[in-house]
Write a structure and sequence with these properties.
Chain B: InterPro entries: AAA+_ATPase (IPR003593), ABC_transporter-like_ATP-bd (IPR003439), ABC_transporter-like_CS (IPR017871), ABC_transporter_ATP-binding (IPR050763), DrrA1/2-like_C (IPR025302), P-loop_NTPase (IPR027417). The complex is a heterodimer of chains A (559) and B (343). Chain A is mostly helical. Chain A contains 24 helices and no strands. Chain A is globular.
Chain lengths: 559, 343
């Protein structure tokens, strides 16, 4: 047959088989491996953080004696304890593992729910929205393979975290910690979190943009959180409203109290139903298409969108709104705990001398000390906000948006000034929200230790300190744009010195000077030292002055 | 409309240097764009085009040299100058949460305008011509649509100088021709344009002069005709007698000889500088037919860079051996002679 071998090749016509059963899933295995490869660092840190959180929580509660646990249990029966904690199983005889289950599940479901939502959307709709999925799907990959791979990997990650977490609980738990209860806790959390991941899978079929799917899924997560909290407040150990929330499906398994498994079946059933709904929708839509139409925006800008301040405000307003709302609620809840705090603190200090070192040993000063520490936390959150917003200018510059604006008749200092002005106003607002939310929380439960005026007096010295963080980031950005991220150093420094400074012996006083919060008077105890306040004010002015000076003379883009 | 004193060039760059760390992005760059001229600005990626433009915009600070627009210093008088210019980057990034229309209006308002009514009419016209839906969020726009937003914003402003950095990247040919229409319109209105581009046909269509830069230095400058003169035309002819004499001419390159009905077919590239001598030689062979094709800008560009790449090879060989090899030396000498002859 040598004649055939030497004949010129004709047009290539491959033999193409018919679609085999399950061909829409072709390539799923390879995609699973690819997702695990792509996310390996992310998966490691999620697993590590969650397991470390379990470890820390168990270990911290292990230092409590019976009396302190009883105090904690009492706090968990207050409305804010129920809202931030759980339905209150086992509070009659509170043990560390019962506390972990009662108070922790809410937070692990939130954390892992967010992880699941981001995972699903990242590997389905966001891939589709970019052109990446198109490249993959044009290959030998079935229609449903990417989604199935995303769900499979999500299950794997949640299972991994559940197993490791249960392992750590068993490893460090006391004699009453059983393997079954530990798995009851972590598997319940994993399944409840998966529910939100699958919710995101359904939304990813409906919306055209990943952001939309994430936003809607987060809204469901938030609603579920509030439904559970409100339901549990209405009735001890939960009402029908609680049972509408996946949070309850994990909590009602009552690990370490009276473990029952069937609530987990609710999570499983909802996951299966949503998966069916999602695949039904997925089979009926076009690649890249959605079912919810994108709302058309304004064809012309409103009259207010004139000038760089207006634009910076547009860019930052939602961040400010959500941070104010989220942190405001958190500090409000903290305020509502004030009446119970003195008792709890007394017990804690008696059982743990380290707590005494941080909060002081005078029982009457506990509320003041507690407020002081909470305000420090609060102001550090504000500082974080200031640092993030101080970095917004850098984001504008790296994206190239600063360039097109500065090519217009707009002075550099005007543009940068607008960015900093809006960030500065946001910082001031956040400071006020933090301080007054604690006041409002206290007032709501009838605590009148300190008046509105007292809180106002505490508030204003914090303002220049908070602006120092913005100014410091601004100077870094203006002079060393690549080092803008080092703005966080000032915050870490302030945190370490503020929290643990009193624990370190022979710490020279001068080590505190670089910490803006050092110059702020102790809340509700001292009155502001005029020279310190003037010094802080001068520091703010100098920092902003330096920032403008540096920004005027450097290259753009420098990052 | 703003008037600018005549006689002052729109852009005047002399001996401009700019380094980023150890990398020299601009190395003694010279570039002049007289008012009312559309100047093409060519060069491979990394040649320094965008750096030059960012210096002109007062975004980058030059290390040495002069950079002026309309006689004013680009760094010192940046904001005042920006009232008279408009800029389109090659990769437009917009505020993701604003619609295209909002982006356009925001950019326009930064300039300020007197005649709101005329502006609205022109805005509507531009949106229609560029087929842009202004109600979509910028995050949903494709690259081409983001580019259109910047183009609409640019042509909405009544600028005296348009600085366009690869403005049509990502546009389809229809949109590209809309773009060239607007550039021509600007030119007719006496405006100046600096057009950095990779699309040579576009440059050929609208530009009066062309500057080619490489490694931060202007290596060629002139009108297209002038640049063509520096290079070679392609000649194809069918001649009666033996074409051997042609091969001996210095001005004849890459000679190919094939048999043809009733004669010999010759194809070669002729140096335009000595085209007269070449034609005499061809005529002497008894011409049956002849076509002479001027080089397209693309050929010009490729040839220019081919040349410079050769020079780099020579430099590399010299560096490697310490002494230039025979081949390299011959090449270098030939090039030097040619340059000297042309200038």
């Amino acid at each position: 047959m040598s004649a055939v071998a030497t004949a010129p090749a004709g047009p290539a016509v491959p033999t193409i088989g018919r679609a085999r059963f399950g061909s829409t899933l072709t390539g799923t295995g390879r995609m699973i491996r690819f997702i695990l490869r792509r996310d390996r660092v992310r998966i490691f840190w999620w697993t590590f953080s969650i397991v470390a959180f379990y470890l820390y929580f168990m270990a911290a509660l292990g230092t409590f004696d019976a009396e302190a646990m009883a105090g904690r249990a009492a706090l968990m029966e207050t409305p804010s304890g129920i809202a931030m904690g759980g339905p209150g199983y086992g509070v009659e005889d509170y043990t560390p593992e019962r506390a972990v289950a009662n108070e922790g599940i809410t937070w692990w479901v939130i954390a892992l729910g967010v992880m699941s939502i981001l995972h699903m959307v990242r590997h389905t709709r966001t891939e589709e929205e970019s052109s990446r999925s198109e490249l993959v799907r044009a290959n030998v990959v079935g229609r449903h393979a990417p989604a199935v791979a995303a769900i499979a990997t999500l299950t794997l990650v949640n299972a991994l975290i559940a197993v490791f977490s249960a392992g750590i609980i068993v490893a460090i738990g006391g004699e009453y910690v059983t393997v079954a209860d530990s798995f009851g806790l972590t598997v319940g959390v994993a399944l409840a979190s998966m529910v939100f991941g699958v919710v995101a899978f359904v939304f990813a079929q409906l919306t055209v943009h990943g952001r939309g799917a994430i936003g809607l899924s987060m809204a469901v997560l938030g609603a579920a959180f509030f439904a559970r909290a409100a339901g549990d407040m209405m009735e001890t150990h939960g009402s029908p409203l609680s049972w509408s929330s996946p949070f309850a499906w994990a909590q009602q398994m009552r690990p370490f109290v009276d473990l029952i498994w069937w609530p987990a079946l609710l999570s499983v059933a909802v996951i299966v139903l949503l998966l069916l709904l999602g695949s039904f929708l997925a089979s009926r839509r076009d690649f890249g298409g959605g079912m919810l139409a994108e709302r058309a925006g304004r064809a012309e800008a409103g009259g207010s969108l004139a000038g760089p301040v207006a634009l910076a405000w547009r860019q930052q307003r939602w961040a400010l709104f959500w941070c104010s709302l989220g942190l405001g609620l958190m500090w409000f809840a903290t305020g509502t705990m004030l009446p119970d705090i003195a008792d709890l603190m007394r017990d804690m200090v008696e059982s743990n001398p380290l707590v005494g070192a941080v909060f002081g040993n005078d029982p009457d000063g506990f509320v003041t000390a507690f407020l002081g520490i909470m305000l420090l936390y609060g102001i550090l959150c504000v500082a974080a906000y200031a640092i993030v917003m101080g970095g917004r200018a850098k984001a504008e510059e790296s994206a190239g948006r600063a360039e097109i604006v500065l090519a217009r008749p707009l002075a550099r200092s005007t543009w940068y000034g607008a960015q900093l002005l809006v960030a500065g106003i946001g910082t001031v607002v956040m400071t006020a929200v933090t301080v007054y939310a604690m006041w409002a929380g206290g007032v709501a439960v009838g605590d009148e230790t300190f008046s509105f005026g007292d809180y106002t007096e505490v508030l204003w010295p914090y303002l220049p300190a908070a602006l120092c963080y913005l100014g410091f980031t601004a100077v870094l950005y203006a002079w060393f744009p690549k080092a803008t991220g080092l703005g966080w150093l000032l915050l870490v420094y302030g945190f370490v010195i503020g929290m643990f400074g009193s624990l370190i012996e022979d710490l020279p006083e001068a080590a505190n000077y670089a910490n803006p919060l050092y110059w702020v008077p102790e809340a509700f105890v001292e009155s502001p030292e005029p020279s310190h306040m003037i010094g802080l004010g001068v520091a703010v002015v100098v920092l902003f002055g330096l920032a403008f000076l540096g920004f005027r003379r450097r290259d753009i883009p420098a990052v | 409309m703003t008037t600018v004193s005549s006689g002052v060039p729109a852009i005047e760059i002399a001996g401009l240097d700019k380094s980023f760390g150890s990398v020299k992005a601009l190395d003694g760059l010279d570039l002049t764009v007289p008012t009312g001229e559309v100047a093409g600005f060519l060069g491979p990626n990394g040649a320094g085009k965008s750096t030059t433009i960012r210096v002109l915009l007062g975004l980058l600070r030059s290390d040495a040299g002069v950079a002026r627009m309309f006689g004013r210093d680009v760094w010192h008088d940046a904001v005042e100058l920006h009232r008279h210019i408009t800029y389109v980057p090659g990769d437009v990034s917009l505020w993701p949460n604003l619609t295209g229309g909002e982006c356009i209006d925001y950019l326009t308002r930064l300039r300020g305008t007197a005649d709101k009514k005329a502006l609205r009419a022109r805005r509507a016209e531009l949106l229609e011509r560029f087929e842009l839906d202004p109600r979509k969020k910028a995050r949903t726009y494709s690259k081409g649509n983001r580019q259109k937003v910047a183009l609409v914003a640019a042509f909405l402003s009544d600028a005296d100088l348009y600085i366009l950095d690869e403005p049509t990247a990502g546009l389809d040919p229809l949109m590209e021709s809309v773009f060239t229409d607007y550039v021509r319109e600007a030119k007719e209105a006496g405006r100046s344009v600096l057009l950095s581009s990779h699309i040579l046909s576009e440059v050929e269509k609208v530009c009066d002069t062309v500057t080619i830069i490489r490694n931060g230095t202007a290596v060629e400058h002139g009108t297209l005709d002038e640049l063509r003169h520096l290079t070679r035309s392609n000649v194809t002819a069918v001649v009666g007698s033996d074409p051997a004499p042609l091969a001996r001419l210095d001005a004849v390159n890459d000679l190919q000889v094939t048999a043809h009905d009733g004669g010999t077919r010759v194809t070669f590239d002729a140096d335009n500088a000595d085209i007269a001598g070449v034609l005499r030689a061809v005529t002497a062979l008894g011409v049956h037919s002849i076509t002479v094709t001027p080089p397209s800008l693309e050929e010009l560009f490729m040839r220019h860079y081919g040349d410079v790449i050769e020079a780099d090879e020579v430099a590399a060989e010299v560096a490697a051996d310490g002494v230039p090899s025979d081949r390299a030396a011959r090449k270098a000498a030939r090039r030097a002679a040619k340059k000297a002859g042309v200038r």
